[in-house]
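Tokens in:
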């Protein structure tokens, strides 16, 4: 059986480098293409060389059409606007699209859902095994302790542009789903000044930014006489790469639809 041909979007970035490394080290998959923005310095370079790997014989390009035409999967850690554009192209090519991009708004998510009618899309705010286990624990705890207040604290490096993080929102969605409520209608963010008492059923978010923190998340369930704190600390962004490649492999042969890492992991 031939190797699965994977295209890496954002190939010139830190996460792109990790994905390229993971693909080259994983049996059964191969780097078929590498994409970057038109003016990125990696354009025209060998995808492997610019990522600190051995040459792969694949040049980084800004034109997705030729590389997607003969690919079987696309792994995409870019920005929302680009992910939406790539989702439409992946749907046309009928290939698996793995989206690790965070910060998508409602309109962008709606476009990605529309593309998923024609292709397999695996989208997750975090593709690490540990975080997805944490999400399951949060869901179980929120269901078992329906009257406990839920607060989510996250910290990331100073260059992260969206807040709350996609992972924090994923954890919030897990808590909301356990209680049968809408996160959009019960989320509280950025409290400041005379905010009044905490609303019953609210799920609070706080975001910290600084230094080179890869990612830290705490989910706090605060009850009348006790407090439970569930914590995940990411020590290296390389932890996201195995999950993304596993998702690209898992999606082969699946029916079109929008999936999450919980589906990939069998949750």
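Residues out:
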């Amino acid at each position: 059986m031939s190797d699965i041909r994977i295209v890496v979007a954002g190939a010139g970035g830190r996460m792109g480098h990790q994905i390229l490394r993971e693909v080259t080290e994983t049996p059964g998959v191969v780097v078929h293409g590498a994409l970057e923005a038109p003016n990125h310095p990696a354009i025209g370079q060998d995808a492997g060389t610019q990522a600190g790997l051995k040459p792969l014989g694949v040049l980084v390009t800004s034109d997705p059409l030729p590389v997607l035409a003969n690919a079987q999967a696309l792994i995409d850690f870019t920005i929302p606007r680009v992910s939406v554009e790539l989702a439409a192209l992946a749907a046309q090519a009928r290939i698996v699209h793995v989206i690790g991009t965070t910060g998508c708004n409602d309109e962008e998510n709606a476009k990605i859902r529309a593309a998923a009618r024609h292709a397999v899309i695996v989208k997750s705010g975090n593709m690490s095994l540990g975080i997805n286990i944490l999400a399951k624990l949060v869901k179980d705890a929120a269901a078992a302790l329906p009257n406990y207040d839920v607060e989510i604290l996250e910290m990331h490096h100073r260059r992260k542009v969206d807040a709350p993080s996609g992972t924090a929102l994923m954890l919030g969605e897990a808590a909301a789903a356990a209680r049968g409520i809408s996160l959009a209608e019960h989320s509280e963010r950025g409290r400041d000044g005379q905010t009044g008492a905490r609303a019953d059923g609210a799920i609070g978010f706080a975001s910290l930014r600084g230094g080179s923190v890869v990612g830290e998340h705490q989910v706090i369930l605060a009850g009348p006489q006790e407090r439970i704190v569930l914590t995940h600390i990411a020590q290296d962004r390389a932890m996201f790469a195995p999950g993304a490649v596993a998702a690209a492999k898992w999606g082969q042969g699946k029916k079109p639809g929008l999936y999450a890492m919980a589906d990939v992991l069998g949750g």
